[in-house]
Amino acid sequence: MGKRQHQKDKMYLTSTEWSTLYGGKKPVNPNSASASFRRLPFDHCALSLQLFENPLCDTEGHVFDLLAIVPYLKKYKTNPVTGKPLESKHLLKLNFHKNAEGVYHCPVLFKQFTDKSHIVAIRTTGNVFSYEAVEQLNLKPKNWKELLTDEPFTRQDIITLQDPSHLEKFNIANFHHVKNDQKIENEELIRAKTDPAARLKYINAETKGVLEQLEKDYVAPEETVVVKKVADSINAAHYSTGAVAAGFTSTVMMPETTHEPAILDENIVRYQRIKKKGYVRLVTNLGPVNLELHCDMVPKTCENFINLCKKGYYNNTKFHRSIKHFMIQGGDPTGTGTGGESCWGGSFEDEFKPNLSHTGRGILSMANSGTNTNKSQFFITYRSCKHLDGKHTIFGRVVGGMETLAAMERIGTDNKDRPVEEILIESAQIFTDPYVEIDEQLVVERAAALEAAEKQLKEAQASIPKAELKAFKQSGVGKYINPKVFNKPGDAAGTESSNSSQPKKAKTSASYSFGNFSSW
Fold it and tell me: Where does the record place the PPIase cyclophilin-type domain (predicted)?
C-alpha cells in the first residue's frame, strides 16, 4: 500500500502516512473560521467584513465603512484592527473611482483593482490610485502634485491601502474586534430580536389585520421559577433517580456524578401511614345513615369522598336511582346520573381489593361508567351483588341507620328507576378524618427531622478544633513555631547542634582495596 518509490509494499498505513498524506489528514479551507489566515478583500470594511459604501481609512491604511466605524468609536474609542486609541477626526474619507462596468480602478492608468494590486491613497485629497501610477508620475520625476487635482503633497501623505507583498494587515484572525468579540448592534438588529414582525417585508392586508389583532390580544406568559425538590427523610425512596446511569449511557442526558434518592409522591407517603377507618354521617330527609370508610385499604377513594363531604358537595343532592333488592345510587349534583366530578377535578383510577366484596346489605361502592372513571357518584347495596366485584371500588359500609336504608328501598320508582318520592341528602357530617391526623403528623415529623439535622450540623461544626495561629517575635520561616521547643534538654535539635562543633571521623571501610603495585 505504500505510495513512495523506496517504500516497501506494506499491507498497512504508517502513522506518518495517515497524518500527512491521506486518511486522517483533512484539507484546510482558507476561508473557514478555523483557518490561521483569512484574507479580507480590499473593497470590504475591516469592521463589518462587508462591502463598504462610504469608505474611510486610518493612517495605517485600514479601510472602514462610515456606518460601521462611527458607532464603534462612540462605544469603544479604539481602532477595530489594532486596538490602539482612535478618534473619528483622524479618519480620512476615500474617493474610489469605478469604470463603466462598475469595478474599482485607477483613475489615471484605468487598471482594475484586484486582490493583487498595489493600491495607495493621497492624504490631502483622499483620492485612490494604483502605486504604479504614483511611482511613475510622482515619485520618479519628483512631481509632488496630486494627479487629479494638482494639490501638493509629500511622501508622508501616501497611505498604502493594499500591498500584495505585505498582507498581514488583511488577516481577519488578527483583528482586535474579532479576537475580543466586540460587536455593535444597530437598530434594525435590535428590532429584529425584539419584534417578531421585523423580518416580514411584504404582507397582504389579511395577514396585517391578523397580526394587529394578535398584538392586541396577546398576553405574555408569566415567568415561573421552578424550584427543585429535595428528598428528605420522609419522602426519600429506597431507589435513586437514575440520573447517574442515564447521564453515563446517553449523550442526550446531562452528566451526573452523585446519586440522589427519588422523591415519593406526597399521597404515597400519606396513604402508607393511614391505619384508621373514617366515619361519616349522611343526613337524609328519611333519617341518618352512618358510614364506615376503609381509609386504610382504599385511601384515595375515601379521601375523595371525605373532601367532597367537607366542601358540602353532597348537600341537597338527590338519590336519582333506586332498584329494589339491588342498590340505591346518588352523589350527582345534577340529579341526572351523568354529572359530578372528583375533588381533584375529572376522574381518578379504581382501587380494587380482593378482601372487599359486594357481600351483604349496606355496602358502599363507587359508581362509574367504565375503568378508572370514578368521580363523585356512589351507591349503597340492598343485597349482595358479587358480580360487581372488580368493576366498582368498594370503599365503605353502613354501620348505622339500616332502618333509613329500608325506608329508601320501600319507596316506589318509575319506569326509569327514579324514586317517585324525593330522597334528599340534606348534609354530611364527618366524625373521623384520618387524613387530617396524618398531615399533622407529617408536619411534626418534618420539623423534628429538620431540627435534628441542624443540631447534628452544629455538633459537627463544634467538633472541629479552632486553633488560632500565634506569631512569635521571630519572622520568616517558622515564625509560628514556639522557640521553646528548640531549647528543651535532650531534644534532637539541641543534640545535633552540640555535636556539630566536633569534627566527624571518617568511616573506614572494611572491604579490600587494591591500590597500586608499590608493595610488590
Answer: 284-430
